[in-house]
Design goal:
Length: about 250
């Protein structure tokens, strides 16, 4: 009876170890964001973290695969094993950078210059023997949209300068054009040349007296007696400085 009890207790221990053993080796867990959104041309951080009961060794590997949005089988484009192996050809050539740190449980990468063709599902897979069970993979759905144009403050300032400055100059010109004709019209009334002054107008401008044309010897020859008397009377008057006697 006692021997039977010992055998039953030993069997229970074996069964308990069998139940606990998978949980001891299947403790690796990988986590990634469920969704990511980016604009065309952005650098996208594809985050991947993992938790493992075993310390990462040289046998630990990280793989990233991609499945297009249109569907199809996933394609591995990045591999890490002691060092990073970025893609040298294909869709992601030259656009993948390793950002992870296995000692810290990080297997992240970055996607440079995202395009609309990068839309799809990205899967991060981590293997760290002896942890070979659990949840070694995780998925992220990336959505890349066209980049919306952004208006900077400097662009607005330049636009306002090109619109407001010409408008202000034109406004000043119109105001000056409306006021200056009136001023010129008032000044034209204040002064008029002797040629523009008609008979009966008085603008304070001196009108010189008409000059009397003096007779010459040629004229005297043709004068009669009455004309000669008038001539001698005029000759007795003072002679103007501007007068120059002509000769026949």
């Amino acid at each position: 009876m006692r021997r039977l009890l010992e055998e039953n207790s030993g069997l229970r221990v074996v069964l308990l170890l069998c139940l606990l053993a998978p949980s001891l080796v299947s403790s690796i867990t990988v986590s990634t964001p469920a969704e990511l959104h980016a604009s065309r041309g952005d650098a996208v951080a594809l985050s991947c973290t993992f938790v493992s009961t075993s310390r990462p060794t040289s046998k630990m590997t990280v793989d990233w695969s991609y499945r297009p949005q249109s569907g199809g089988p996933p394609q591995t484009f990045f591999h890490f094993s002691s060092r990073a192996f970025p893609p040298l050809e294909g869709q992601f050539a030259g656009r993948i950078q390793w950002q992870g740190s296995p000692a810290r449980g990080d297997g992240s990468i970055s996607l440079i210059n995202a395009t609309l063709n990068d839309n799809g599902t990205y899967t991060c897979s981590v293997r760290n023997p002896p942890d070979v069970h659990g949840s070694p993979t995780s998925h992220t759905v990336l959505t890349v949209t066209p980049k919306t144009p952004s208006i900077r403050f400097s662009d607005i300032a330049v636009l306002l300068a090109f619109v407001l400055l010409p408008s202000g100059i034109i406004t000043l010109i119109l105001i000056g054009w409306m006021l200056c004709p009136k001023k010129q019209h008032n000044q034209s009334k204040a002064y008029r040349s002797p040629i523009e002054v008609t008979e009966g107008e008085e603008y304070g401008v001196y009108q010189p007296a008409p000059k009397t044309k003096r007779s010459t010897c040629c004229h005297l020859y043709l004068m009669d007696s009455e004309d000669e008397a008038e001539y001698y009377n005029l000759k007795k008057r003072p002679v103007d400085e501007d007068y120059a006697e002509s000769q026949c």
